[in-house]
Amino acid sequence: MSDLRELFLLRPEIAYLNHGSFGACPRPVFQAYQQRQLELERDPVAFLGRRFAGLMAEARGALGAFLDAPAADLVYVPNTTTALNAVARSLDLKPGDEVLGTNHEYGAMERMWRRVCQAAGARFVRQSLPVPVRDPDGLVETLWSGVTDRTRVLFFSHISSPTAITFPAQELVRQAREAGIISVVDGAHAPGQIPLSLRRVDPDFYAGNCHKWMMAPKGAAFLYARRDCQAMLQPPVWSWGSERAGPGTSAFLAEFEYQGTRDIAAYLAVPEAIRFLTTWRWDEVTERCHGLLCEARQRLSALTGLTPPAPEGRGWFRQMSTLPLPDCDARAVQQRLFDEFAVEVPVFEWEGSQYIRLSIQGYNDVRDVDTVIGALGALFGRKA
C-alpha cells in the first residue's frame, strides 16, 4: 500500500491517520479539478452560461451510477452539513412533533436538529445506544424503542462520526417507512468506504460526501431525495432556479443547481475520482486497509486493555474505527501526537470517555500503525 502514497499530495513526514475528517485527494483527481478551474477562468461566460447544464448532468450521471441511484434524484452540494440543513429546515414540523436521533451523531448535526426543533416547538430525542454494541438487531431494537406516536423523523448516521459504527441503514429505513416516519440519513462517511446502493437502502433523504472516502476535491457532496419527497424541499439559496433551467428539468434539480455564480470544479471532478477508484481497484485496496485496521485495533486494545465500541467484522467497520483510551486530556493528547510524533489523528471525548479514531486509507501502511501505537505507548507510559 505504501507505493500508493506517491499518488497523494500529503506531507511525507506525517503519519496521516485522519482521512475520515477531511480526506486526501489523489494527484490525478486534483489535476482534473484544477483543469476545470482553468477552463472556467479562460471563458467564464461559456463555462457557466452555456456549458453549465451539460457539465452538471454528466457529473450527476457518473455519481448516480456509482451510488446506484437515479441521477435526477441527486443534487450536488458543498458538504453533507449543507444538505442536511436543507432537509431539516424544509420539514414542516409542528409543536409537539419529535425527531428521533441517537447519541452517536455528529455534534454539528445534533445542534442543527435542536435548533430546528426549538424554532418549530418540536423536540429532538437523543436515544442512547450503549457501547460496545453486540448485534445489529439489538441496535435497531434499542433505537426503535425511542419511537412514539409523536415521532415524525428518524435521523441516523450510516457510519457514525464519533464511534465509526456502521448502522443497519436498510432495516431502519424500512421500519420508518412502514411506520409513516420520514427517514433522513447522514451518510457523510459511507460513499467510497462501504458498498452503497441507494436503491436498496431507499431512504427518503440521504446526504453524503464525495470529498471523504471517494477522494474527490474538498467541497463536493450530494443530497439524494426520493422522487415523492422532493416537493418537500426548499433550496438553501433562492436564486434563478427553475426560471433559468432548461425544459424537462425538475424543480428539485433547478432550485438546487441554479444558485448564482460559484465554482463547480469540485463537482465536475467527481467522475475523475470515480475513475481513479476503478483504475486502482479500490475494492481490493479497501480490503487491505481493513486488514491493517484490524491489526491496529488489536494492538491498541492490547496496549490499553479497553474494549472497542464495535466488535470485529466488515459489517461494523471498514476503514475507520474508534477505540477507547485511558482517562486523559483528549485535546492535549491529540496535540502532543502531532507535535512530538508527527501523527495526525483525532482524539476526543464522547459520552464522558476518551477515544481515538483511526482511519486507514490506501496511502497508509504498517509503519503508520507502528508510529501511532508507539506514540500512545510513550504518552501513556505503557509498553507498545
Write the SSE topology.
Elements: E1 15-16, H1 19-22, H2 27-42, H3 44-50, H4 52-67, E2 74-77, H5 80-90, E3 98-102, H6 107-120, E4 123-127, H7 136-144, E5 151-157, H8 169-178, E6 182-187, H9 198-201, E7 205-209, E8 221-225, H10 251-257, H11 265-268, H12 270-279, H13 282-304, E9 320-325, H14 330-341, E10 343-344, E11 347-350, E12 353-359, H15 366-380
Parallel strand pairs: 1-10, 3-4, 3-5, 5-6, 6-7
Antiparallel strand pairs: 2-8, 7-8, 9-12, 11-12
In short:
The protein is an alpha/beta fold and 384 residues long.
Poorly predicted residue ranges: none
Main sheet summary: 7 strands, mixed
CATH architecture of the largest domain: 3-Layer(aba) Sandwich
DSSP summary: helix tally:
15
Q: Give the H and E element order.
A: EHHHHEHEHEHEHEHEEHHHHEHEEEH
- The whole-number mean of residue pLDDT values reads 96
Number of E-type strands: 12
The CATH first-level class of the largest domain comes to Alpha Beta
Description:
It is a single chain. By secondary structure, the protein is of the alpha/beta class. The protein has two domains: 2-27 and 281-380, Aspartate Aminotransferase, domain 1; 43-270, 3-Layer(aba) Sandwich (Aspartate Aminotransferase, domain 2), CATH 3.40.640.10. The protein contains 15 helices and twelve strands. It has helices at 19-22, 27-42, 44-50, 52-67, 80-90, 107-120, 136-144, 169-178, 198-201, 251-257, 265-268, 270-279, 282-304, 330-341, 366-380, and strands at residues 15-16, 74-77, 98-102, 123-127, 151-157, 182-187, 205-209, 221-225, 320-325, 343-344, 347-350, 353-359. A seven-stranded mixed sheet has the order 2-8-7-6-5-3-4, with helices on both faces. The protein has a three-stranded antiparallel sheet with strand order 9-12-11. Strands 1-10 form a two-stranded parallel ribbon. The longest helix has 23 residues, at 282-304. It is globular. The two termini are 23 Å apart.
